[in-house]
Specification:
Leucine-rich Repeat Variant, single chain, 18 helices, mainly alpha
């Protein structure tokens, strides 16, 4: 096809924007199953990976959507990027995020390993979200992380944030059996606001009354974003019953000042 010949010229000129448009046309277009395109998928993958490696943020964002439509041939090189200690952090971010889109068992182990070994909390949160996107294929790995005493509560906390994204009843039961409130209020890792916010959002999606206690505890957090995420999550549950519970807590002298303040904000936002 003439478009593939055009790709060669653009690749040599490093015209990333035009190259992305051409790849989108070939891989995402109506003729994506054309025999010539299917035969050249390995080559198209190589070009897409070149953009991922050398492109700017927006270009990487656009090409990651193309990679998910190249079937499973994109999984091994993405895993290599994820496991490459010399690769820049942004590349790890894109690799984890894109692998989650595939929902393929082969991608689970490297993402779980990232959760176990990565020090950067933001990247761990992205890895947890990626596992959550993978659906039922990630259930076993996530539940093992939650109950495995060989790993720290810090890892379990991040895994917990991914669980409700799977939207499976079995996972909902798993998370509500874990000491979520204890994780949220006691462990040093919960000082990371983005992790707290992710857990708040996940607990709201869970849709179970067991999520109320840890969510209310987050109303006392010093971070405004965490409080607002907790409020939004509480609204996803039994709104009227929780509103009444918050009013009772607001009038309870035993309620701490920080929680009183958070409850006041929640009631005003209701």
């Amino acid at each position: 096809m003439s478009n593939i010949n055009q790709l060669l010229v653009q690749a040599e000129a490093a015209d990333w924007s035009s190259l992305i448009q051409c790849l989108q046309q070939l891989i995402l277009g109506a003729n994506s199953e054309h025999p010539e395109i299917v035969k050249n998928r390995e080559y198209l993958l190589t070009l897409a990976l070149s953009i991922l490696g050398m492109g700017g943020f927006q270009q990487r964002w656009e090409i990651s959507k193309v990679l998910t439509h190249l079937d499973n041939i994109a999984i091994p090189p993405l895993i290599e990027i994820l496991e490459d200690e010399d690769a820049e952090e942004e590349l790890h971010w894109y690799a984890a995020r894109t692998l989650g889109e595939f929902q393929h068992p082969e991608a689970i182990a490297p993402i779980v390993e990232l959760l176990k070994t990565e020090e950067d909390e933001e990247l761990k949160a992205i890895a947890a979200t990626a596992l959550g996107q993978m659906g039922t294929v990630a259930i076993t790995s996530l539940t093992e992380l939650l109950v495995d005493n060989n790993y720290t509560s810090r890892i379990n906390l991040t895994a917990s944030a991914a669980m409700p994204s799977l939207r499976e009843a079995s996972l909902s039961e798993t998370l509500t059996r874990t000491p979520t409130a204890s994780f949220l209020t006691q462990h040093p890792a919960t000082d990371i606001a983005n992790i707290k916010s992710a857990i708040a959002l996940s607990l709201g999606q869970l849709g179970k009354m067991q999520a109320i206690e840890p969510l209310i505890s987050l109303l006392a957090d010093s971070n405004t974003s965490v409080r607002l995420h907790a409020i939004a999550a509480l609204k996803n549950l039994d709104g009227e019953a929780i509103y009444q519970q918050l009013q009772q807590l607001a009038n309870n002298d035993a309620t701490t000042p920080d929680l009183q303040q958070g409850i006041a904000i929640a009631l005003a936002e209701w």
